Amino acid sequence: MAAQIYDLIVIGAGSGGVRAARTAASLGARVAIIEDRYLGGTCVNVGCVPKKLYVYASEYGKGFLDAQGFGWQTPEAPQFSWATLTRAKTQEISRLNDIYRALLANSGAQLIDGRGHITSPTTVLVNGEEIHGRKILIATGGWPHVPEIPGSTLGVTSNEIFDLERFPDRLLIVGGGYIATEFAGVFNGLGSRVTQTYRGPLFMRGFDDDIRRHLRDEIRKTGVDLRMDTDVTSLNETTEGIQATFADGLQEIFDTVLFATGRQPNIQGLGALELGVTLTPDGMISVNEQFQTSVPSIYALGDITGGPELTPMALAEGMAFAYQQFGQGRPSPSYDNVATAVFSQPPVGTCGLTQEQAIAQYPRIAVYRSEFRPMKHTISGRDERSLMKLLVDRDSDRVVGAHMVGPDAGEIMQGISIAMSMGATKAQFDSTIGIHPTAAEEFVTMRTVAEELGQ
User: What's the pTM value of the predicted model, to 2 decimals?
Assistant: First the structure.
């Protein structure tokens, strides 16, 4: 390794790093990519892929119950096997790891298993040897943050929750973001008694307030003990389980405690800061529009730079970076109208501005809102309601925000985001013929303004 000078050394073989390495190699660059833990990154190994598989698993229990209203009778209650699920998940991730390894090999990029440490603007130490590169790309992603409270080592993070030795009958989830909320739905659906706590008055910070309130109410209907304005101050191991002490003095026993209290850049021990790479006030690596850090030969992209922490965004950034540095150039991706989904139960889909952001950017906003019972549950008997919402700039008639809580929210929002990226107006939404009977048609049939905001 020491004899070769690479055009690009990538540290981190997650979504963004692998895409950048593969694309740069296909453009003729000599590329090395270093990974010390998860080939494929967080998404493939301890993020979106296993999470979505577990969401699917958790929905079957509800499905068995709902089926009874449609005439299906089950003579015996279905039994869930945690070991079967974890084994199937592991096999699927192993398959994906092999695919990533083959993709890198076929592209011509050299994969180096080990931990990279940047020792100079053009040098990386890995496995006791120094390798040299004209450019270095940091794509190490994020890492779970655990609060510093007594007994915090008794808890687990999203890295470990997929592979617990024993299924937890009593699960405490500390956190109010999308990761915490998704796992609350998963383990509640699989049969745990789930308590989710959030230290603020309303969870899912950053999402539209109507969505946050509606989701709170719907999640509580499913049986999750969702507590706001509640914080855990300590954990203690007992013969009965893990004793959690809350800020109000209440103490309860749980089998497992999951900390889903945010993520931070995975740059510990990387060496970049010692060389002069600067951080933003939020602790992210500061980069310009070409992903260049304060050290000219060192670049960074993905979750560590403070943009949307989404796999498709990291992929788009990796592609743009490679073409900017080794191809004919390509603009960096737009961060406007980036659709996203939360696989909570019920799920959330969102694109564009929240109501609060829209009011701040536009003088006049029209709010369209629709709440209804999904057609399926008129027979299943389940007490679940969907919410859809559109935000329209009155001066241009352009749709600037779309939000949904309900079945298939993520699938529906992908199509909505295409229209919004093209600048679709409310009149164009209205002139679109809906697909009946679907929930999605509600987005093109909302005619009554629920609120007029602004001047």
Answer: 0.96
